[in-house]
Amino acid sequence: MREFIVNKEEINYRIDAYLAQKNKDISRVAIQRLITEKKILVNGKKTKPSYKVQENDHITLEEEKPKEISLKAQEIPIEIIYEDKDIIVVNKPKGLVVHPANGNPDGTLVNAIMAICKDSLSGIGGEIRPGIVHRLDKDTSGILIVAKNDKSHINLSEQIKNHEVEKTYIALVKGVVKENEATINMPIGRSPKDRKKMAVVKNGKEAITHFKVLKRYNNYTLLEVKIETGRTHQIRVHLTQIGYPIVGDTTYSNGKNKWNVQGQCLHAKSLKFKHPITKKEMYLEAKIPEYFEKILKELNETKGTEL
Question: How many other C-beta atoms can be found within 10 angstroms of the C-beta atom of residue 65?
Fold first, then answer.
């Protein structure tokens, strides 16, 4: 049990922000969950994350005991790009789900990482997603960071939240994009027509995507894409919205393509971030998968126009 007494200089802070500042080993999101679960009390009573602390408030925080992870480690081939005692960076293949969920109890990236890292994974992500700081869609390949301890997890989550992690993707889209580069700033939320899909909606969350043309082909364009925000399916939704769906995407277009690719031609190429512990500037790249390279090779033989 952790206990805190609010002093005069600390009044009027939201309790979740106040406790996140006092407890560097617990994320603000985790604190909000503990409040909901009534494991954080103010003067012996339940509270809300928006409550503003007052002088002499007595706050108690019931510490969580680490949960036994019931997931099993599985030997699944994964390319390791970088690894040290704090983080592991991998190149996720297309078709691999990041963490277990309904319909995917195992055979995920988490199961593979557990086999590699054994007991050294952050528990902040919860029982079914240990170490997972950010994610990629099942059919998006590419670079992904996993935290090996809670301190690294919290720091990386803060970097992502503050837009300090630069994510660069490569996307092959249908159609010939006219602009050499552009920014898409359209809010994204649940589709009112299909709750399993995302869409550009007025009351959605801010979503900002930057792209520039790398090469134009007959009926296709290769794009470099950078995102400021990390909304679910953001790149796929934004590019479809402006008329250039990603090749192979069956969720936001018909997915038909002459290569019969199942799953979008979208690859997380690189990440630029600060190491969560050493603070060293990191730049890491994940090689493009073989199927994607073959498509680009075939298109290059048609003499596409490169900028």
Answer: 6
Tokens of 194: 């299909």
For residue 282, give both structure tokens: 């990191």
Q: What is the pTM of this model?
A: 0.77
From CA 166, how far away is CA 148, in angstroms rounded? 21
Residue 158 sits in the same domain as residue 169: no
Alpha-carbon distance of 108 to 112, in angstroms, equals 7
Q: What is the DSSP letter of 197?
A: S
Domain extent, residue 220, equals 163-307
Q: Which of 16, 57, 86, 137 is catalytic?
A: 137
The band of 306, judged by pLDDT with boundaries at 50, 70 and 90, is: low
Same domain for 21 and 119: no
C-alpha 178 chain-centroid distance: 29
Q: Are 272 and 265 in contact (CB under 8 A)?
A: no
Model confidence pLDDT, tens digit, residues 162-173: 889 999 999 999
The alpha carbons of the chain give a radius of gyration, in whole angstroms, of 22
* Residue 86 annotated in active site: no
Using CA atoms, how far apart are residues 264 and 233, in angstroms rounded to an integer? Answer: 11
| Claim to verify: residue 117 and residue 208 sit in the same structural domain | no
